[in-house]
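Can't attach files on this board, so I'm pasting raw text. These are the components:
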Amino acid sequence: MRTPALAIGWSLWARHRTANGLLLAAIPFCALLYRAFFALIPERLAGGQGFLRELPLTLLPMALSFIWVFYVCGQTENDARKGFTGFPERLFVLPVRTVGLVAWHTLFGVAAIVFVHLAWAWLVFRPVGVHFEMRWPLLLSASAMMLFQGAVWGLASFPWVRTVALVAGGLAIGPLLVVTSIPGFDAHGLAPACVEGTVAAMPLIWVITVMLVAAERRGGWQPWRPMRRFAQRIFDRAIRRRSSFASASGALAWFEWRRKGWLVMAAVAVGVAGAVLMLPVHALLGGPMGLPPWATLLQAFVWPLFIGACLGWFLARPDFSGDIALPPFHAIKPMSSGQIVLIKLRVAMAATVAGWVLALPLTLAITIWPKWAELCHNEEFQEVLRWIRTDGSGAWWLAGMVAVTMVMTWQGMVEGISIGLTGRVKLIGWMTAIRLASIVAVVSVCLWWHRRPELLPRVAPWIYAGLVLVMIWKTAGLIRSLGEVRRRGLWTAKQLRLGVGLWSGVAAAMVLGTALILWKVPVATPLVLLGAVCLWPGGHIAQGVIHLAGNRHR
Amino acid sequence: MNTTDTHSKPVIEVEALSRRFDLKLALNDIHLTVPRGCVFGLVGENGAGKTTLIKHLLGLLKAQSGTVRVFGLDPVAAPVDVLGRLGYVSEQRDLPGWMRVDELLRYTAAFYPRWDHGYAEQLRREFVLEPDARIRNLSRGELAKAGLLVALAHRPELLVLDEPSSGLDPVVRRDILEAIIRTVADEGRTVFFSSHLLDEVERVSDRLAMMVEGRVILSGRLEEIRANHHQLTLRFNAVPIVPPELPGVLRLTGAGQEWTVIANGARAELVEAAGRLGAKVVAERSPSLDEIFVARASVKKSGAQN
Amino acid sequence: MQLHISTHDGVPVYLQIVNQVKYLVAAGRLAPGEELPPIRTLAGQLVVNPNTVARAYLELEREGLVDKRHGSGTYVSKEGSPLARRERRKILVQRVDALLAEARHLDVDLGELTTLLRERHQTLDTDRK
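---
Top answer:
Structure tokens for the assembled complex are below.
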């Protein structure tokens, strides 16, 4: 390690060397795996995009590896007391000029993202006949890296502004990257213009980043101080708690809401509105990928469930410690584990309802925006939209689906909370991986069958048999968990009744949702039932209590 | 519940408690009884298992084998009943950094029906904690005081402190020790605290237990422990070729003709044995707790190596 | 009443309190009939366990140095210490031994030391008056 550059490069690699190594290994692994698929089903791959058309989820590992590279190259370190920090402070004491520090990080970051991008495109997708457009996307991912680093380091003093900026940037650049990667694609010249603008702004962005990091090195940019103090005062006046709590439950609910609940609410609102906003992109991509227009519409309802599951995990974890185990601060409060879980569920419910209520006007604003409808270039999809807008039954159908999705968003959170409350990293990792894998499997199976309707009658009995087994298994899980909660006295009789009531509500919503889809959506019944059984609530609501008790009394 | 019954019963009873983390045996067959109204000091080096034992008392760890009873209840089976009657200050002082001091007080008060608002306010003034201050901006000492405040303000029957004064300056340490004294001065309240600073244990505790490598090697009343240990300086007529062997000796240091021993048990027997080896006592004093601990710990460790 | 507790020299805390109170009485800084601070106050002030202070007071009472009046407090006894002669001698022998050793080390002979003792005795007497 003779030069600072080498030391910085090494630290970027070595801090997460296992994960980085796994990522490097994933590329050749996926290359071989996809080649194997290619060998199995050669006839399906005719016409270049065939592979994507068959299994669009093959893009998921690539997307995950991009996110990982961004995280690594942000080079921030968690500080237990200050929270998420910016440019690592320990580097400021090195005898290296700020320009150098930033430049090396930028260089390594850009190199890493370009390398990963090229590796996926050339080593994994090109051999199976998928050719991406490369020129603009490469420039775009390099710019995205610079923007990401600039925001993470430059806005370190404003964590909330930074979070919003990062989310907004991700939502803007992600789809742009996807769209520009499609060969010969030109959405009114809009996308290329955006890319050109972004790339052109890079030198300026980089200079600003260096200036901000230099200011950070000298203890923060001074003019920000009064601004910060002013913002703090306004913020404080709005949310500072000045009255006593009526009960322990009220206090805990306040804590949960103050730390996470309102964020969950915002995330649900943004997620729902974002899913609707992105409908044109799906409508556009859906055609070439051979998806039916209904799939495009339904995915807008699936996203909130997915967001719900992620948010549930966030709601489960304690907020102020790097450790995800329940910290003593909470664990030693004289309150039963069952009560704590019920309060979390209550906050999740409030956040879901409030999020959907916030999302509805946003969604309305998006759908009446003429450009949005115009961008939905898919004729069949336009027809679906027309039905919803003009036909009375369409409106009822939509209202029913919104209600069901709202309940299911909450159910997603319940499952996330239950998994997160174990407080054990490995267990959470495994459970999440199994969950993701099962989602990927179910979606892939559904898409595959959709294109081979001739197979369906033959396998339908097997699907039904499997579904019955899954239902039995899930219900048995519920009964077992409730039994254990009762035996260990984690819930009182009243709380048990409440738990069963909540579960029944979710189950009823699920039945309603299935009926609504079967009523109007032209998808084969076994596939709808498959999806429904996957989302059918299991014993999570009671399991969460058992998990928390295990986390609290290890 | 019968009041006379609860008063006569020990506050903490630990029997045959063992705990294993992966390969490490963190607690090895612990037996401990803490009577009501005493200050109980738990001493031992870092990693001896003090925090693990305390976590068992709070129910944060479940007994793998053996039993733990606090107020006669199992803290895992009845967490609400046990936790409502005790106050705890953790070594990490994990208070939420985003709260302000007054918010922390209001928040914690909601969980304890017996929270004494007047007492909390009095302590806040004594500890000079600004109500507007954010927890994350507090100094180490202030953070420790804030943690102590929320543990004390509901006047718990049992105060559990894990390394209350580690990493603190003498002024804050004194505040914390005073709080311990004040707590136990209230009739019937008990303090259980761990520390590796033996001088503060010697000052404030009346019972103590010493832990080395997951075992309790010594437990009892402080004065009895002190009375049972002697430090003698022996002068031999001739230079002994091997270190002299004497009954009850825990630690032997020296060279040439003069040797210093720290011993446990009957003094007369020791002096007699030393006389047979041709030595006489030239100085004698009562060893400090520090010296007893070092002697005990070294015996335990050399024993473990054999 | 100013006491100083040290935990480094191996002397039990209660004994340190006993010895220092004895010294204060002997030096006249605690007059007969004067009240000692209540146990809890002294415990808080010295940062020691109240039981330790209670034990020291009990020891002092047993030696007759202080009187405990029920419900009012602990007072330095009027009669002074009826400490057994043997006990007193024992305490003094230790001190005298240490003094002689120190004097020998500093090359002060017995005559000089005796003169010094007389001088100090007179000074203390005048201080008391």
